[in-house]
């Protein structure tokens, strides 16, 4: 019998997250205070985050225990399956061994609940009543809305306007979980009003929605801010994916030669790859790791490694990352969750160190890959996940060209059940590729703060 799914029992679920900061050859550059330009301390972040998460942000412990309450909720859908994509291999006629970890089995439909549940737990422990956040595609907002419902915390979501319009059912899901959803830019914040005054037709961006959420959270003593990607603690919580995948690859009697993940802010990519990269950094086992980003939002492949703000209104601390500039507004491509101007500092640092690689892929190639995948494997991927599928297919076809069999592991980070409008548009020939000119990239980078 040829195994298709490698399944772990509930009691085989990892009980600790893996912290890559323990294994880095050099630490990432410090986070700076936007006013003083000096490294920030835990107290500077206290208005926005509970102390437990701030301490995880700077921890260098290799493993951090997953609280029992979080493990209990994880078991609603974890461990998630690892598939051997035998039917896709056949369709591609490739000697490659393709594996994918499927995070779309979570109730919200993606990997995002892995951190949403943890964040809601630590906030509840510290008495927080409300969480304020932003969402691009709606996956993150749905996940935090669900986690808020589990822990009795109110959730307010600023949803990027273009997604709010494109994805009414994502909004309905968030509301069903009990969250309030506001289209961003909105009239509810100074940041939103300022953008609307200048650009009344603004379709929004993650950078703008973050500004709105941070502003509301900072002004409400009972509220905190929650971010679905980019920060070290978010990446940490996602490592449960890769920890499970390590055990599942062992069940398969195999080990990945290549790991592929899509990158918006970097969390699902880090989740699947960091436990394997840890082994590489410790000299135990080598692996090639490829991050795939949209050509329409190419922070790692065409951006600059520089200090920048995480948001448009410059309310956040300055972090060193690959960035297209905090006032970059990407075109309205369908992979909403990948349209962030920056990259997680830890992922950026690994790219600078040469530990990982990055490529960008055009929208049409990603949808073609997603459809080929769906016809072979049955699962319709989220448009974000299509970038990973496209990256994996490229590698599998390279194996065919070279006549070698490599093991390729990719993260199928979410399903596309709420994204069918995007597929409809693709099949109707309405989607376009988007090529940035050098001039546009330079313009977007012109507003970077001067720090060095
Ligand atoms: C399904 C899915 N994949 C990927 C992303 C991108 O985020 P990250 O790079 O943090 O995984 C998102 C973000 O909303 C998402 O919804």
UniProtKB/TrEMBL annotation:
<dbReference type="InterPro" id="IPR036052">
    <property type="entry name" value="TrpB-like_PALP_sf"/>
</dbReference>
<dbReference type="InterPro" id="IPR001926">
    <property type="entry name" value="TrpB-like_PALP"/>
</dbReference>
<dbReference type="GO" id="GO:0004834">
    <property type="term" value="F:tryptophan synthase activity"/>
</dbReference>
<comment type="similarity">
    <text>Belongs to the TrpB family.</text>
</comment>
<dbReference type="GO" id="GO:0052684">
    <property type="term" value="F:L-serine hydro-lyase (adding indole, L-tryptophan-forming) activity"/>
</dbReference>
<keyword id="KW-0057">Aromatic amino acid biosynthesis</keyword>
<keyword id="KW-0456">Lyase</keyword>
<protein>
    <recommendedName>
        <fullName>Tryptophan synthase beta chain</fullName>
        <ecNumber>4.2.1.20</ecNumber>
    </recommendedName>
</protein>
<feature type="modified residue" description="N6-(pyridoxal phosphate)lysine">
    <location>
        <position position="112"/>
    </location>
</feature>
<comment type="pathway">
    <text>Amino-acid biosynthesis; L-tryptophan biosynthesis; L-tryptophan from chorismate: step 5/5.</text>
</comment>
<feature type="domain" description="Tryptophan synthase beta chain-like PALP">
    <location>
        <begin position="76"/>
        <end position="414"/>
    </location>
</feature>
<dbReference type="InterPro" id="IPR006653">
    <property type="entry name" value="Trp_synth_b_CS"/>
</dbReference>
<dbReference type="InterPro" id="IPR006654">
    <property type="entry name" value="Trp_synth_beta"/>
</dbReference>
<dbReference type="GO" id="GO:0005737">
    <property type="term" value="C:cytoplasm"/>
</dbReference>
<dbReference type="InterPro" id="IPR023026">
    <property type="entry name" value="Trp_synth_beta/beta-like"/>
</dbReference>
<keyword id="KW-0663">Pyridoxal phosphate</keyword>
<comment type="subunit">
    <text>Tetramer of two alpha and two beta chains.</text>
</comment>
<dbReference type="GO" id="GO:0030170">
    <property type="term" value="F:pyridoxal phosphate binding"/>
</dbReference>
<dbReference type="Pfam" id="PF00291">
    <property type="entry name" value="PALP"/>
</dbReference>
<keyword id="KW-0822">Tryptophan biosynthesis</keyword>
<keyword id="KW-0028">Amino-acid biosynthesis</keyword>
<comment type="function">
    <text>The beta subunit is responsible for the synthesis of L-tryptophan from indole and L-serine.</text>
</comment>
<dbReference type="InterPro" id="IPR006316">
    <property type="entry name" value="Trp_synth_b-like"/>
</dbReference>
């Amino acid at each position: 019998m040829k195994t298709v799914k490698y399944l772990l029992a509930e009691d085989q679920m990892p009980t600790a997250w893996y912290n890559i900061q323990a294994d880095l050859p050099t630490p990432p550059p410090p986070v700076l205070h936007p006013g003083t330009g000096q490294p920030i301390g835990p107290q500077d972040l206290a208005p926005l985050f509970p102390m437990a998460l701030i301490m995880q942000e700077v921890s260098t412990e290799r493993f951090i225990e997953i609280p029992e309450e979080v493990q209990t909720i994880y078991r609603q859908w974890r461990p998630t399956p690892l598939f051997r994509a035998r039917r896709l291999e056949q369709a591609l006629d490739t000697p490659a061994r393709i594996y994918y970890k499927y995070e779309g089995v979570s109730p919200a439909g993606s990997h995002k609940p892995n951190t949403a549940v943890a964040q809601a737990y630590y906030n509840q422990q510290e008495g927080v009543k409300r969480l304020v956040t932003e969402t691009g595609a709606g996956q993150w907002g749905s996940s935090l809305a669900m986690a808020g419902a589990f822990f009795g915390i109110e959730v307010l979501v600023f949803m990027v306007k273009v997604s709010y319009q494109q994805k009414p059912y994502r909004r309905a899901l968030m509301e069903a979980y009990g969250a309030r959803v506001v289209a961003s830019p909105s009239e509810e914040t100074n940041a939103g009003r300022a953008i609307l005054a200048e650009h009344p037709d603004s379709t929004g961006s993650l950078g703008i929605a973050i500004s709105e959420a941070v502003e509301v959270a900072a002004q409400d003593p009972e509220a905190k801010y929650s971010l679905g990607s980019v920060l070290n603690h978010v990446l940490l919580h996602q490592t449960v994916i890769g920890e499970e995948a390590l055990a599942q690859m062992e069940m398969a009697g195999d080990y990945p030669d290549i790991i592929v993940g899509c990158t918006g802010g970097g969390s699902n990519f880090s989740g699947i790859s960091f436990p394997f990269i840890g082994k590489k950094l410790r000299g135990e086992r080598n692996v090639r790791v490829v991050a795939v980003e949209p050509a329409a939002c190419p922070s790692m492949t065409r951006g600059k490694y520089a200090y920048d703000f995480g948001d448009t209104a410059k309310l956040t601390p300055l972090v060193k990352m690959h960035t297209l500039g905090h006032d970059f507004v990407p075109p309205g491509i369908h992979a909403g969750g990948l349209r962030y101007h920056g990259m997680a500092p830890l992922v950026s640092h690994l790219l600078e160190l040469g530990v990982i690689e990055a490529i960008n892929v055009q929208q049409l190639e990603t949808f073609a890959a997603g459809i080929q995948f769906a016809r072979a494997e049955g699962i319709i991927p989220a448009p974000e996940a299509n970038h990973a599928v496209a990256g994996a297919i490229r590698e599998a076809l390279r194996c065919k060209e070279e006549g070698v069999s490599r093991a390729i592991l990719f993260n199928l980070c979410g399903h596309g059940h709420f994204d069918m409008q995007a597929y409809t548009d693709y099949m109707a020939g309405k989607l376009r590729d988007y090529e940035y000119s050098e001039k546009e990239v330079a313009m977007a980078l012109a507003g970077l703060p001067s720090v060095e």
